[in-house]
Amino acid sequence: MSCHVSAVRTCLKRALFTFRCSGKADCLKKMYSLGSESLIKQAREIQETELQKFYSRLVKLLQLKELGHETVDSLQRLHLILSANKYARTLPSDLQQRLLLLLSSPSEQLQVLSSALLRETPPSSGEELNNIQENVSQLNTHAAALLVSQARSRTDLNNLCAQLVHGLEGRPSDGPTRSLMFTLPVLNSILRLSPESLTEEHVTILSKKFVDWLRYASILQGGGASLGGFFTGPRSRQPLPTAELDGSVSGDFFTVLCVGQGFTEDQWMNVYSFSMLRRWLLTYHSVSSGNSTMDADDRSEVDGSVVSMVSATSSSSRLLPPKERLREKAFQYCQRLIEQCDRKAQKKSDTELQKACMVEAVCILDCVCVEDPSMVFRTFPSIKALFSRLSSDLSYARVLLPIAQFYLNHGEMAAVDCECVWKLVFARFPAELFNDPFLAHELLRFLRQNLDGLRLRAPEFIRFLPNLLKFLAWDSSAVVDDFVDLLPSLVTEGTAVEMLHTLLDLPCLSATLVLQLRSVSLPISESSSRGLLSLDAFRNPAFRGLFLFLLRVETGSGHTIDRLSTLHDLLAEAADWPRVVRCAQVVPVLLHIYFNTVVTVGQEKLLAHLILVMLERSGLLLAIPTYSREIHRVFSCHLLRLCKLRPSLVVDQSHELLEFAGTTANVYSKEEVYTHVVWVLGEYLSAASDSRCSVALITSCFETLEAVLFEITSSAPPPGTVCPAPKVITTLMSALAKLASRSHDLIPRVSLFFSKLRTAARNGSVAWCADEDDLVAIVTRGEELWSLLKAPGVAQSVLTPPPHVLTPRWHRDTNLAMPLQLRVLTRLTHSQ
C-alpha cells in the first residue's frame, strides 16, 4: 500500500471543499467512493510477505520513546487492513503486546487505536487479559471496553466483574484512583449483559461505595478555584464551595446539580453513581442472598470527605444493612434534587438539566418505594407537591409521566385520588402535545408497560381512546408499532363500534390536526397557497362541530355519520398530503388487529352491529387513492370470517344485506365488498345454517339478486364506469344456483337465465363484458351450474355440502373401519 490513509483522507477533504465551492458535489461523491474502494481493495489484496514487513516496521515504531504521526498513520493503516477482511487476522505476539501497552498511553488517540485494533483480532490469551485486569489503577474506558468485548465465556465476565468490584475497595493510599471513573460504566455494561455475574459480596461492596459517593462527596470545588485578591498566592489559595444553579452557595451535600469551576474525584463519582443508581436498584434483586452476615457496626468511610452539619447522617442510619442504607441515602439524594430543581436556573441548559434530574429522581424514588413500601408515606408528600407545581406547565410533560407512574404504583396504598393525574396525562397531553415525538414515544411506552395496572387501578383511561389516537394520526409511521401492541387491550364491548368509526376516520383526523396547527400559525387574513378551502372550512363556525368531533377527547361525545360526506368534501384537498397518506396506509393493518380482537370479546349483538357499520362505511371514506380499495379488502375478509363464525348473523341482518346487494351501483363502486356480501347470502341463507331461514326469505333474496344480475347483463355499464368484473357475475350466478337448489320452485327461473346467457354469448360480443375470454369463462360457469340444477338433489350436495363432508373426521370416527386398520398397523410396526 503505497499511500497512507491519512494522506488520502486529507486530499479527499480538500477536494470536497473545492468541489462544493464550484458546485460539483456529485463528482466529488463519485471520487470519494472510488478512493474508498481503492483503499479497501488494496487492504484485502495485500500479500503476506508485505504484511509481515509492515508488522516488523510497526513494532520498531512502537519501540520509540515518542510516538509521532508516522506511528499513528501506520496504526490507522493496520486497522484498515484488519477490518477490510472477512476473517480475523492473528497479529504477531510482540506486536500484540505493544498494542496492549498502548492501552495505558497518555494519548487518548493511541488508546482508541489500540483498542480498535485488538477488537479486530482473535481474543487475547488469558494471561494478557489478566495483566490488564491486575493494573486496575491504569484502567481506562478503552481498555475496559476491550476486556468486556473479549470475554470468551460467562466465567471471564464473572472474573472481570469481581476484579473491578474489588478494585473499588482500594483506598487513596493504595495508589492512583482516577481509574474509578472508568470502572462504573464498565460495570454497568456487565450488569446489562450478565446480571448473574454479581454475588452477594459484590452487592455489599457496591452498595457501600454508592452510599459513600452519593452522600459524602466533597462540597468544595476542585481544580484550584481561588478566592482571589491582590495578595493571594499559591499557599493562601483556598478552595471555594460549590454553588447551586441559581448562583447561591451550596448549603447541603453535593449532587449532580451543584456547579463549580472544577470538580474533585469523589464529585465525579457522585455523578456517575447517580446515573447508575436506578439500574443498580433494579438489578441487585437478581442476586440470590447468600449466607454472608453483615457487621452491624459497618461504616462507610471516605478519607478527606467534607460533610455539612445539615446533612450529617444519624447513628440509626449507620446501623442499617448496606441495601437498606443505600435506599435511605438514595431517598435523601433524590429529595435534595427535587428541592434544587425548585431553584431558578441562570442558564437555559441548566433548566433542561433540572428536568432530566427530576425525571431520574422520581424514577429512583419509585424504585425505592417498590422495594420498601414503608417509604411511600415519606415520599408521597414531595411527589404530590411536585405534581401540583408542574401540572400547570406542559413544558414539564416528560417530567410528569414518571410522576404518573409513581401515582399508579403507590396511589392506592397512599389512598390518594389520582383522577387529576389521569386527566392530565390522557386528556391534555395528547390533545395539546400530539406533535411532540418524544412525549408520544414515552406516553405510549408508559401505556404498554402498565396496561394491566391501568386496567385494574385506572380503567377510565380507555375512554380517552380518541385522544390517544392523535399520536397515531400525526406521526403514524413512528408509533404504529406501539398501537399494534395496544389496540387489542383497548377493544371492549363499549368501545368497539366507536373505535371502528375512529379508525376509519383516522386520515380525516390527521388532516384536521394539520389544519389546527396551520390555523394558529397563519393569520386569518393571510391566504395560503395550499389548503385554503379546508382551512377556511376549519375556521367556519358552520362546520366547527364536524372538526370538534374529530378532535374530541373522550368517547361517546357525538356522532357524525350523517354528515361524513360533507366532512370528506371539505377535506378533499388533503387527500394527497404526505402525513394524511402515511396515516391512511396504517389503517388496514390496525383494522385487521381490531377485527381479530373483536371476535373474541364481542357478543352476537355487537358483531351484527359491526356488519351494519361495514356496509354503511364502505361508501363513506376519504377519497385517498387506493385507501377505499384497501378498506374494502379488509371488510370483505372479515365479513366472511364473522358470518362463518356466526352463520345466524346472515338471517339477523338479512334485510340490510339484501338492501346492499340489491343496489346495482354497489357492483361498480364497491366491487370487493359486494362480491363477498353476495357470496355470504348464497352460502349461509339456508335452513341448515339457521332454522329461522324460511322459503319466503330465500325467495326474496333470489329475486333481489336475480334483478341485479339481469340488469347488469342486459345493458352497458353507466357512463364513467367500467364493465363489472367477471368475479361479480359468476358469484351472483353461483348464489342464485345455491338458493334455487334449496327451493326447487326457483330452478326454472335460473335455468331460463342461463339459457338466455348462452344464447346472448353465441350472438357475438356483449356490452357488459369487454373481454372475450372473460365472457367464455362466465358462460362456461353458467353451463356447469345449469347441468347441476338438472339433478336438484345432487346440486344441493355439491353447491352446499354438509359440514361433515367439508370437515371429515374419518380418523376419529370409531364406527368406521379406518381407525381399526390404523390401530392394527400401529401395533404391527411397534411389535417389530
TrEMBL record:
This is Adaptor related protein complex 5 subunit zeta 1. Residues 31-312 form the AP-5 complex subunit zeta-1 N-terminal TPR domain. Residues 353-470 form the AP-5 complex subunit zeta-1 ARM repeats domain. It comes from Xiphophorus maculatus. One of its GO terms (cellular component) is AP-5 adaptor complex. InterPro entries: AP5Z1, AP5Z1_ARM, TPR_AP5Z1_C, TPR_AP5Z1_N. Residues 482-828 form the AP-5 complex subunit zeta-1 C-terminal TPR domain. It comes from the Eukaryota. It holds the Pfam family SPG48.
